[in-house]
Amino acid sequence: xxxxxxxxxxxxxxxxxxxxxxxxxxxxxxxxxxxxxxxxxxxxxxxxxxxxxxxxxxxxxxxxxxxxxxxxxxxxxxxxxxxxxxxxxxxxxxxxxxxxxxxxxxxxxxxxxxxxxxxxxxxxxxxxxxxxxxxxxxxxxxxxxxxxxxxxxxxxxxxxxxxxxxxxxxxxxxxxxxxxxxxxxxxxxxxxxxxxxxxxxxxxxxxxxxxxxxxxxxxxxxxxxxxxxxxxxxxxxxxxxxxxxxxxxxxxxxxxxxxxxxxxxxxxxxxxxxxxxxxxxxxxxxxxxxxx
Length: 292
Prior knowledge:
The protein is mainly alpha-helical. It has one domain (19-262). The chain is built from 15 helices and no strands. The protein has helices at residues 8-15, 22-33, 37-51, 55-62, 68-71, 73-90, 94-107, 114-135, 143-159, 169-183, 188-205, 211-219, 224-229, 237-256, 266-270. The relative contact order is 0.16. Residues 287-292 have low confidence and may be disordered.
């Protein structure tokens, strides 16, 4: 019996073309190599916290404290990850296009202009690399992975009707940095959403009696601009140091030494609530999505 190459996924990634094989590369990178469910959930929650540092995004999500991200935080996050899982499976083929159209209908009732959608897209494409640079000391993603992320999410952006997407991954990152510098602002809406996210992540990471420790682990992943804009509670230097050291070791180990895991995906990780009958049309707010 032939044993599988322990580094099978990263070697396949390097053989693929990021222009034509973007879906496969992003799947192998984001879902397989760096896709432990808890880690993906934490990274996604961090990206959400970054998005609500933009007041107009925070206002849409908070909605007077009645937004799904506040009232049903775990479901809202998992539902969004299931949409991403559908994109990772299908990208721009017919099921992927249907998923994009479903998202467009769900968002159409909110005042979301193009720059807000473009910033959200930029966080999905660029934030994993920025987290790696900050917490692992370097971009752990290869050139093929970095380029494939841009090609993949750029096409999803087109399906979602987003325009004026910068010309390449470097221009998108520059646009994102500039947009944050110009638009980050402290708001009660953003702080409220971040507290809901922290409470949810705390409950995911720790038992109820230690929930506040889990919340502070989440806050320890924030960079200083994000901590400042959301007025994050002070965390102990010891805890921040432990989180930093643990994340550094984990990301460095995954990128260099640890073997690649077997195939896995977000739908398998977060679709259990559908009792083996996962159907993306059932995901999201409880309303008839067949109606415009």
